[in-house]
Amino acid sequence: MSSKVTRKILSIILVAVTAIGGCLFFATQLVHATVCSEKYLTRYFSSKEITAQCNENFKTQIEALEAKSAIPSRVFDAVYNFSETTDDTAVHRLFGGHDTSLYNDATIERFEMLCLEYLDGTGKEYDKALVHNTALEAARIYSDSFGIKNIEQMRSFINQESRDYNKVTSLSLMIMLLPVALIFALFSKPYDIVLRIISAFTATGLTVMITGAVSLIAGFGQSPLISPEPYTQAAISAVRGMFVICVLAGAVVFIGSLIANVVMTDKIKNTPSN
């Protein structure tokens, strides 16, 4: 086997390894910036549509509690005025390692205080035990409407990604940059080096674009276990959004590298040989 053929085979292998490192690096950054990002998930879980659905669920169930307890629903609605409750979203608690169900003593106490304030203000007689039970029921409704249930698998994935992020990023950069260094050592002409690096970007962009498209079509990640239903749909939308970004970013890299390849090839053809 001639040295020319050997060099060609080696360059193909090095381009392929560079593309693998590029794909791993892109995937790591994409997951970190989307489904493992509090800001990104909040955009979906706290969207106007999801918030409206959660509010409607809460309103419907609270109206039923009003009929049973004789305490107006507006009293329970006042829980929104507590800054701790409105700011401490389920997603925030997810990333903070806290209970995402939002069913806790603080919520129960808020509802109980609201009920007592209303009853004392109107001068109505009441049984404290019954008021407490009403607060428990209101807190359960609040949890069912705004809390995220069955979050263990999602939390485990986010925590694992957080632990491995730096390590995987470093590994992917090493896989990507080491072959590039070998390409520099293997070829002396700048055009040969640049064309192979561009080829690696082309392969990376194409792989990323195809992976995102296949994932969208196959419905990967479209069956989350979390509940209630509004948050299930939010999780599905978040995953689909990640794959859409994957397709678009891959397409940009792929098309951009193709254009760069054409421009570079044209320069080589128009450069007079010595």
Description:
With 274 residues, the chain is mainly alpha-helical. The protein has helices at 3-33, 38-45, 48-69, 73-77, 83-87, 90-96, 105-122, 128-146, 152-186, 190-218, 229-270. The longest helix has 42 residues, at 229-270. It is rod-shaped, with a radius of gyration of 28 Å. The model has no long low-confidence stretch (mean pLDDT 90).
Give a brief outline of the structure.
With 274 residues, the chain is an all-alpha fold. It has 11 helices and no strands.
Key words describing this protein structure:
single chain; 274 residues; mainly alpha
Shape: rod-shaped
Task: From the alpha carbons, calculate the radius of gyration and give it in angstroms.
Answer: 28 Å
| Share of residues in strands | under 5%
Question: H/E order of the elements?
Answer: HHHHHHHHHHH
Distinct helical segment count = 11
Please bin the fraction of helical residues.
over 70%
Fold blueprint:
Elements: H1 3-33, H2 38-45, H3 48-69, H4 73-77, H5 83-87, H6 90-96, H7 105-122, H8 128-146, H9 152-186, H10 190-218, H11 229-270
